[in-house]
Design brief:
By secondary structure, this protein is an alpha+beta fold. The protein has one domain. Helices cover 18% and strands 28% of the residues. The protein contains five helices and 20 strands. Strands 3-2-1-10 form a four-stranded antiparallel β-sheet, with no helix packed on it. A four-stranded antiparallel β-sheet has the order 6-11-12-13. It has a four-stranded antiparallel β-sheet with strand order 9-8-7-20.
Length: 325
């Protein structure tokens, strides 16, 4: 009986992929609304979405190292950034970055960064089963087959997680494990300037494709984590995975480091000179709490209906104040 249900779920997912196939369609009337303590709006109501696949791919599904993809929330995709190029590493040497794998991307001033780390808005994240690439991993129900596991989940500030974007909504070509995620920004614009690489190279944890320099070094990231966890892991082993950035502040997860405390499900926040694990959704995102590698991190905003209700409430309050006056 269990196998029949799984087979039916797989068939439904494949049907959805076919039904939603089409060209990239920009999000109409993008929403950049206030933070939300409750469940966020779906992907179609969030503009400026980009992701990378594992391994990196073009929008048509063909392999292309260091390529980022724009997605419209209903299966339409188009090529965005390719991060390949010549960069200056932390020592000042010039390095050609090409043929590598992107596993994190961010805007240098990520929208809602502060609201996420203050637990004032919903968090978006993706997960990776460390045992195999698969097509994402459903930590809430491990029996769900790879074909229908969701690429992106959301955790609301009030607590609780659920699916935010299905494979059919992310790409008509399917998702081979959503490896990095950027949300917000002008529709169709290449604005996710910051990126990290799988097995961070040349001593750099986060690169800046606009200035072609290193934004955060492995020594900086490793020093923070070693200090917090009271470990002495070699700095070159630290590999930034998911991330959000706000100027000199950064929120990030790490690729697992075998034989150490780094299991890949911890999320860390460096903000205002302070460093600690993320406290969101009523719990700490510390190493070992989830058991599945956290691959991507982003913020989210309210359902359009919530915004409308907020507007009605504010209008009613204004009318009441005018009557009293």
């Amino acid at each position: 009986m269990q196998m029949n249900r799984l087979a039916l779920a797989t068939a439904c997912a494949l049907t959805a992929l076919t039904a939603q196939a089409g060209p990239y369609v920009p999000v109409p009337d993008p929403i950049y609304g206030p933070p939300t303590l409750d469940w966020p709006a779906g992907p179609r109501q969030h503009p400026g979405k980009e992701y990378t696949d594992e391994s990196d791919r073009n929008a048509d599904g063909s392999l292309n190292p260091m390529q980022s993809i724009m997605w419209d929330g209903q299966g339409g995709v188009a090529n965005s950034f390719n991060y390949s190029g010549v960069y200056v590493d932390p020592t000042g040497a010039r390095q050609t970055l090409s043929g590598l794998q992107v596993d994190g991307q961010a805007h240098p001033l990520d929208h809602m960064f502060n609201e996420v780390i203050r637990n004032q808005t919903a968090l978006l994240y993706s997960l990776r089963d460390n045992a195999a690439y698969g097509q994402g991993h459903d930590a809430m129900n491990p029996l769900v087959p790879a074909a229908v596991a969701a690429p992106v989940y959301t955790e609301r500030a009030l607590g609780g997680s659920r699916v935010w974007a299905t494979q059919a909504e992310v790409s008509q070509h399917g998702v081979q494990n959503l490896d990095s995620l950027e949300v917000f920004g002008p529709e169709g614009a290449d604005d996710a300037y910051l990126f990290s690489l799988k097995d961070d190279a040349f001593g750099c944890a986060v690169w800046d494709s606009a200035s072609k320099t290193c934004r955060f070094t492995q020594a900086f990231i490793g020093g923070l984590v070693n200090g917090l966890l009271k470990t002495d892991i070699a700095l070159e082993k630290f590999d930034v995975d998911g991330m959000m950035v706000n100027g000199d502040d950064i929120m990030f997860s790490l690729w697992p480091i075998l034989g150490t405390a780094i299991q890949g499900d911890g999320v860390y926040v460096f903000s205002g000179g302070n460093f600690d694990n993320l406290n969101h959704g009523g719990h700490w995102w510390k190493e070992g709490w989830l058991g599945v590698n956290v691959d991507a991190l982003e913020a989210a905003v309210p359902e359009p209906a919530s915004l409308a209700l907020l507007g009605i409430g504010l209008s009613a309050l204004a009318i009441r104040r005018r009557r009293k006056a």
